[in-house]
Design goal:
Length: 228
């Protein structure tokens, strides 16, 4: 599903974020990305949906070589990837239904297919009855559920989550993680950057630790491994 070979990223200010990183992630895996602040985790995540471009090296996502990807092809790549952010990034003037439907409208899906698919994913995340509400009428956990619904409405093969529980209380965080578990059980690859030690230690999935722009640990059934 995702492969990086000898990937380097140097920013214009001279900071080297990735320093020859190599990794392979297979379809259906659930992978945690951990490491100290400034280790390169966010850059690593952004590389996969071409928010950032590698300075050198090769990145392949679902058969697409991002090194050769033209700018006009980036939207096609992103339709195959769901992204969930820490701060939700919902459109405040759109309802729950409209926020989720937007991802299908931009690719000009048939209105009836949009309605059915959106209601199906809202049912999955437990928000079917709140489809007509606006983001500011929802709790933080509910807003993150909308964000997750939006990320999977296109039936992507991979969902990338960047600190998805960072703004949530512990109980709500576990509810969100249960939802990610269910999505993964349906065959979707999940890649999640997190500082949540408790979640990583309890769920025991593949853990990839990044330090200084390099992978320093990659283990299945791993733990968080850092004192926080």
């Amino acid at each position: 599903m995702i492969e990086m070979k000898n990937v380097y990223k140097k920013y214009p200010n001279g900071i080297v974020a990735l320093n020859g990183l190599n990794i392979r992630i297979n379809q259906g895996e659930f992978v945690y990305i951990v490491g100290p602040s400034g280790a390169g985790k966010s850059t690593f995540i952004k590389m996969m949906y071409r928010e950032e471009k590698a300075s050198s090296g090769e990145i392949v996502v679902n058969g697409m070589n991002l090194s050769n990807l033209k700018n006009k092809e980036v939207p096609y790549l992103r339709r195959q990837i769901g992204v969930v952010f820490q701060d939700f990034k919902l459109l405040p003037k759109l309802t729950v239904f409209e926020n989720v439907a937007f991802a299908l409208e931009v690719i000009e899906e048939h209105p009836e297919k949009i309605r059915k698919r959106v209601m199906d994913v809202l049912d999955l995340v437990g928000l079917k009855k709140k489809a007509r509400m606006f983001p500011d009428e929802l709790s933080g956990g509910e807003q993150q559920r909308v964000s997750i619904a939006r990320s999977i409405v296109n039936l992507p093969k991979v969902v990338i989550a960047d600190e998805p529980t960072g703004n949530l209380d512990p109980d709500t965080s576990w509810e969100i993680m249960s939802l990610f578990e269910e999505i993964n059980a349906r065959g979707t690859t999940i890649i999640m950057a997190t500082h949540n030690r408790e979640i990583v230690n309890n769920m025991r999935r593949r853990v990839v630790a990044i330090e200084g722009g390099l992978i320093v640990r990659d283990e299945r059934g791993g733990d968080y491994g850092y004192e926080i």
